[in-house]
Amino acid sequence: xxxxxxxxxxxxxxxxxxxxxxxxxxxxxxxxxxxxxxxxxxxxxxxxxxxxxxxxxxxxxxxxxxxxxxxxxxxxxxxxxxxxxxxxxxxxxxxxxxxxxxxxxxxxxxxxxxxxxxxxxxxxxxxxxxxxxxxxxxxxxxxxxxxxxxxxxxxxxxxxxxxxxxxxxxxxxxxxxxxxxxxxxxxxxxxxxxxxxxxxxxxxxxxxxxxxxxxxxxxxxxxxxxxxxxxxxxxxxxxxxxxxxxxxxxxxxxxxxxxxxxxxxxxxxxxxxxxxxxxxxxxxxxxxxxxxxxxxxxxxxxxxxxxxxxxxxxxxxxxxxxxxxxx
Length: 327
Fold this sequence. Notes:
Elements: H1 2-27, E1 29-34, H2 42-57, E2 62-67, H3 75-84, E3 89-92, H4 94-97, H5 116-123, H6 126-139, E4 141-143, E5 147-156, E6 171-174, H7 178-186, E7 190-193, H8 199-205, E8 210-214, H9 215-220, E9 229-245, H10 246-251, H11 254-288, E10 292-294, H12 298-304, H13 306-316, H14 320-325
Parallel strand pairs: 1-2, 1-3, 6-7, 6-8, 9-10
Antiparallel strand pairs: 3-9, 4-9, 5-8, 5-9
Helix pairs in contact: 2-11
């Protein structure tokens, strides 16, 4: 009997010791993060860093389950999932978010800025804060702090683009965002919206003549295997923004919200640092493989887009574009 009691005590003691671990496992919250970026890309590496930090700092209570390479759909598909609460997180550009709250597209407008620090300040401007609140209240999507994604340049297969008129008739892939469609139409090209995962095959088969993205994205997706020219238009300094489902945000205790925001900010800092390093080295690597770099006339492109800027004053709010540039 004494031996049985000893064994029973040992079992109960072990169970009590295991209980907190079991409770932690049962109480763990997984945040599903879908995006279109490739696994080896700088942005995905930033997301992995954020996931690592969140797991460590929450003691395993919170984790990010990462789904790169459009596994859960294109950007618009995933944003719809975030809005409905079936996906916790995705990352996209303000131009795409402009499909839901049109004024937000201003943060990805051409030639707005060439300084990421200034762009970060723009996200805290009262006009932009109001846009972010509108997205949360009307579409259940909460925009977090921006990540540096690079500076967008135009690539083409058969024709260098030095002046806006060189784009006439070319089919150029753009993200599925109204601002990008309007930009290419204003420049005389034929914009072709599609998800990033479809672009390589479309370039290879001639469905499209070119695309525009930062150099690290061009490299990660191997677009220069099927393109000849990088035209240095530098038309947009690109922020990507993590977008969190409002339902997911509400379900998190305040302390966990802070952990998530901090982890994503540090992941974004790493992604931005890696992106800048890639931009510095990629030109030499591309040229060594036969890519031609074209010095496009950036002021000419900016002048050509003046009619679009005038039209979008009604969308963005009168004077908001100038106020952001003045920061």
